[in-house]
Amino acid sequence: MATGVSILCYKSKTLANGAHPLMIRLCKDGKKKYVSLGVAVLPQFWDFEKNRPKRNCPNKIVIDKLIASKMAEYNALVVDMMAERKEYTPRSLAQAVEQKIQGQTVAEMYGRLFAEMKKTERLGNLAVYKYSFNSLMSYTRNKLNIPFREIDCVWLKRYEEWLHARGCKDTTISQLFRTLRSVFNKAIEQDVIKQDVYPFNRFKINKFDIHTEKRSISKEEVQRILALELSDSGFYMGLAKDLFLFSYFGAGINFSDIALLRFCDLKDGRVCYVRKKTGKPISFPLNDISAKIVEKYASPFGSDSDYIFPILDAAVHKTEQQKRDRIRKTLKKVNRELKTLGEMIGLEMSLTTYVARHTYATVLKRSGVSVALISESLGHSDLSTTQIYLDSFENSQIDEAMQHLL
């Protein structure tokens, strides 16, 4: 028996203001199920013969759109059920639709992802997705509670133009669009939306130029940093130098992972840790320079559970948020001191902790090490990320290579 899907003004229930709720009525095999649309209409504004709002009904256009949308949603599900020859009842049909509604809007999906990331303490990812969410909220003027279907190629193009008009660089625009695309992908994975609403098959993100400015220095410049005498330059200046060199000689370990290192991570002259961002296990040997840096910060009264570097305090920074806030605050101070260090050795670019990571990768590349091996040592999830890290060959190298063309 075919399923009947109809709309009615439910006179059996009257609200305090005299209005009746609007209901979707599902009928199949003599069974009925009523589903509220979440709106109510006063009886004088409803045409009970034609089951639709009268012309003078307040918010008639909005109510008509809501009715059409819900009717189409239920009818489409009925067609799918019949095509797949699945058994269903009015109740199961209503449950299936209502489950799809949860997280169906873009804002609700972001909210769901925020909750998941907070629960699993992926605070770095949470910050990236919140940045994307806030940008979209600003673009839509706080009206992001829209279905995914509204975000098509035209919508994305206008969003791109809006970002450009506000002076956003391609690297920022690329990150924002990649995050939004990820939200679409997760919505599809979780059966919140169907593949047919996916706009990124046509709107290509790789058109954005994500080439970053030079972030690596030469081995000679590293030597100049190593030779700097900073005994009278203050605690953070000395710490900044030590952390830069430890990262460079430590397989490009990033600042967050350095901050989280404990003495128990030192095993047989090696540092063994799990990269926080990707969950990959990393191991690298301590050379004479990095071993001396570790020894400098070791306390004779310390334990294996102590942090190696004076960034985190286990007695103070207990939650993931506290650790994250402390690391970010210290990173700003360290990068401020590194900028001064760079000026001391005559660098034109700003020296940062990330320069150490990029320099490690670039020096290995120029020494003939494969990109795959560099990627593995950096703990990257894919080679494309490593390619962004690697500095382009200098003109002198290209000139020399061209001598061998004939």
Folded structure, characterized:
The protein is mainly alpha-helical and about 400 residues long. The protein has 3 domains: about 5-100, no CATH class; about 105-195; about 220-400, hpI Integrase, Chain A, CATH 1.10.443.10. It has helices at about 60-85, 90-100, 105-120, 125-140, 155-165, 170-190, 220-225, 235-250, 255-260, 290-295, 320-345, 355-365, 370-380, 385-390, 395-400; strands at about 5-10, 20-30, 30-40, 45, 50-55, 265, 270-275, 280-285. It has a 3-stranded antiparallel beta sheet, with helices on one face. Helix 3 runs antiparallel to helix 4 (about 125-140) and helix 8 (about 235-250) runs parallel beside helix 12. The radius of gyration is 30 Å and the shape is elongated. The model is unreliable at about 390-405 (pLDDT under 50).
Briefly, what is this?
The protein is mainly alpha-helical and 406 residues long.
Record the SSE blueprint.
Layout: E1 4-9, E2 20-28, E3 31-41, E4 46-47, E5 52-53, H1 60-83, H2 90-101, H3 106-119, H4 123-139, H5 153-165, H6 170-189, H7 219-227, H8 235-249, H9 255-260, E6 266-267, E7 270-274, E8 281-285, H10 288-297, H11 320-344, H12 353-366, H13 371-378, H14 383-389, H15 395-402
Helix pairs in contact: 3-4, 4-6, 8-11, 8-12, 12-13, 13-14
